[in-house]
Amino acid sequence: MSAAQATLEALDPSNSSKNTLKIENTDKRDTLIADEKRYQKKWAEDHVFEANAPSTSDFPLNSISPDELRSKHPKFFGTMAYPYMNGTLHAGHSFTVSKIEFAAGVARMRGKNVLYPQGYHCTGMPIKACADKLVREIELFGKNFENCPTEAVTNGDNANEKPAPTQAVTKEDVTKFSAKKSKAASKAVKVKYQFQIMLAMGLQLEEIHKFADPDHWLQFFPPLCKRDLTDFGCRIDWRRSFVTTDANPYYDAFVRWQMNRLHELNKIKFGKRYTVYSPKDGQACMDHDRSEGEGVGVQEYTAIKLQVKEWAGAAQKIIGDKIPAEAKVYFVPATLRPETMYGQNCCFVGPAIMYGIYKAGEDYFFVSERAARNMSFQSIFPTWGEFPKIVDLQGADVVGTLVNAPLSVHKEGVRILPMDTVKATKGTGVVTCVPSDSPDDYATIRELAKKAEYYGIKKEWAELEIVPVIRTEKYGDLCAKALVEEKKINSPKDTKLLAEAKEEAYKEGFYRGTMLIGEFKGESVIEAKNKVKQQLIDSGDAFNYAEPDGHVVSRSGDDCVAAHLNQWYLNYGKGESGGDNEWYELALDWVKSDGVNTFSTEAKNAFEQTLGWLSQWACARSYGLGSKLPWDTQFIVESLSDSTIYMSYYTIAHLLHKDIFGKEMGPAQVKPDQMTDEVWDYLFGRTKDVDTNIPRDALDTMLREFQYWYPLDLRVSGKDLIQNHLTFCLYIHLALFPKQYWPRGIRVNGHALLNGEKMSKSTGNFLTLKESIDKFGADATRVALADAGDGLDDANFDEAVANAVILKLFELRKWCEEMIKEARPVDSPEQYLEVREKERMKNTDVIQRTGPKLFWDEIFENEINGLVQDTVAHYDNQMYKAALKSGLYDFTSARDFYREATRSAGIGMHADLSRQYIKLQALLLCPVAPHWSEYMWLDVLGEPSSIQHALFPDVSAPSPALTAARDYVRSTTSNITSAEGQQVKKLAKGKTASFDPKKNKRLTIYLARRFPAWQDKCVELMRQNMEGLVVDVKAVSQKLDKSESKRAMPFVNTLKKRLEMGEDKEVVFERKLAFEEEDVLREMCMGLKQTVLRCTCVEVVAVEEGGKSGKVVAGAGEGFKVGEEKTGLPLSAEMAVPGQPGFFFENVEG
């Protein structure tokens, strides 16, 4: 059996989703999907989503300003970060897609001309790395990898080389799989080769060899992306699509233009700088080149050289004659605070850490291996990439070694001491000790002095004088000591408190500290810091050192380092970190001033923080796909640097080329070589005219497209891209475009979970967009994505929701169809009852009343009008989960309440309102479920054109009186049915109940026409004891009889709160209902009779003052008499107040 066959058996692509929901009985789903496909085809044929700027023939170019044109023809231009073309889209992509897709749908329904284009990102390392892997594997194993033996992937041999990750490999360990099919395949299959990764993606074995050509990736995956987004129902203008890299000569010209202009503006510089670097790849490793460590930057340190004066015995024994006696050996701690070096009184090592002594030219350095490897790419060692180790030493071996600490007041030397918290993965693994200003150092040195014998040191080594170095107003001369005592830190193990203290000490010392010692005594720390650092470097006692500020692994599987390279870089960042400070301030102001809408405080803060720490960014590499750097063609433009302003390219892409590769000229009939830098300047508003042989009408058309669509209204992306792509997008727009074209909106979303868990192929909890659409259909997938959430927290795509939506949409569709196509109109409630009784109908809802609207009709219409306004407001605020709740779930609940109320009342639904409900439901769901809405619109309602051209409905504002009446109906009904339910529970538990719910009964409702006298008294006292809107509750309480306080004070406090919330004083004190309670109860009687189990009669009794007697004013059923006097009423009658009726059940004969 070949390795390919073993891999196929073990890595069945279907296993990646084996633990997701399985669906049976798919008839309803298939019906919905069939119509989805039909409408997608129709939309494409009718070019529904192809958007153009108003033509220059209708509005000549200089006859109207862009602002005026957009005012006459409002527009929306939105995009998402284009996906990388090394795989198909998965549920995580889908979540981001949904946000821009819903926003585009909303904008269309707001009457805007909407442009939503989509490109394909191919720049960078991943595709090239994967292709090169396949080239090597084909050379080794043959075209179809037939010569790769099973043993090569089922044991640990030759396992050093990792496959280049693609979509199929995540940051989790997914390289081990097992199968149960045969003896050979049952062995653990380890993914070591690229062809195995491709098999796991579902590619045919015979096709994989084609992917050894990077261009094949560009040919293969973009059509799949288009297929999936089309099947999803996206409102995309596909004419404007393109691939990046020089595979498209037009886009290549666009990238070269922007790089040239940034270079001329001095935004791109050349020089030695630190960058994350892959020794294996031989180039900088930027975010998109990483399989681990995205967002990790470089941390720069000052490396201090502490020369050995006398070795500890154990160390001397191990070293022996391996190092010449006269050689200079240095312990090399890395510090962020060189200004504190005057206070060094020892140096720490991790006693369990393995170190080495490395030969650095004539000198020798004692550091961790990780630090030595980093140094070897910073010209600290003589030969690039080489760090010759002379001897291995454990930290414990060197404890007690005497070293000279530069600048330290302890000129006789300080000792190497143990510190358990030292990390080999941070700095050099060697830590110099300054207990005056470092809480960690102070706590450790204090601990060592207390337990010297335990740690195997001499006590005096830890008791050197602690010299004040920096004074702060808050913490005095010994900041570390003050903080340790303030926070009651007892030992070095109090890590959380020490971390807090460390941060406070650094901030206070740097921003408010004054030097107390040394050449720069009296200067602020801010002024002295770099001076001390330079002094140390100039004297040869220190050098610059840097390392990645976290673990970074390249896509080729290499552990990255920080290298000091000559390279081209974009000069982002603050001036204090070497960046372009004016540029930084411009970007920061655009965010802070809300020039760009970030849609949340959290996102805005994240942008401000990123701008604060982001610094120079390498913009070129020597390996991968992309456009060549125009002035230095040995380099390729880095993948995050060629994708910052491509939104502007969308505006004219359809005019330049007809295909994504730019092989066929577009309507403008412009060749790639005609797109000079000067032409791009003109088209993007940087110059007023251009000397070109491009026809003027073509230029005008392209300029109109850009001026109309720009600025970008909305950019959607995952929140992780704030730290690079989205911030770069702001920077480059601000550098290259006039202010009126700067981005206006950036919306970020959280990551997507699947069924409450992280998506993972190895656990079988993974879905591609295609799999989701095939399983649930487009609309059900879209609704589940809308339901997943809208904030920056991780959202959850719940398959159970998607599955439930299939049934909900199908049943709702079926009901709507019946209501329109099988409608049985009647003229009156009486005719409704007659038809319902005599004509046999499966769905009696289709019997629909015409004529004037009645109470229940007004209640329903008022409610759905309110829900329409709520839903549209949620859509405008991009709160799609809330819009879904009000526009689908609450909307159908309102319908269900209306259906039940009119059925129980024996009047049936009103025909006009039934149709209005269906129309409104279709419109409200259109942004999220456009296929379902289109079916309602065209096939059911028979509207003349697509719902994609329809607008949100303009409805009347809800009536407060009708809203209050609706709430009264629901709360009263709920109270009555709950009380009945409580009696059922009592009987079930063998307790005595006030009536038997299973027998015939009468329901009496007690209506109070006025508030009780004690409440009137409370109101009068509140009037007398208030100033402005402030009530003196204490004074009111003192004037109340003690017997009244128990019920009176809660009432007083309730009214007081309403006043404090701004309600009108007279409204609060008058306590008038917004509706006629008696009229509403009269309408409710028939429905309550139907709702309450075995209810033969409902009567409404208007209670007289005192609650002991009353008169029947309304009812339904047998035995009630309007006008009948009632006496000896129960306590519930006395407790009734306006808006809160009492009620009483009693069993009756019959």
Please explain how this structure is put together.
It is built from 38 helices and 39 strands. Strand 31 (824-826), helix 27 and strand 32 form a beta-alpha-beta unit. It is globular and about 120 Å long. It is α+β, with helices and mostly antiparallel strands.
Summarize, please.
With 1150 residues, this protein is α+β, with helices and mostly antiparallel strands. 41% of the residues lie in helices and 15% in strands.
Judging from the principal axes of the Cα atoms, what is the shape? globular
Helical residue percent? 40-55%
Instruction: Describe the sheet with the most strands.
Output: 9 strands, mixed
Strand order of the largest sheet: 15-13-14-10-9-16-17-12-18
User: What is the CA-atom radius of gyration, in angstroms?
Assistant: 38 Å
How confident is the prediction overall: mean pLDDT?
91
Extract low-pLDDT stretches: 156-186
N- to C-terminal separation? Answer: 83 Å
As a percent range, the share of strand residues is: 5-15%
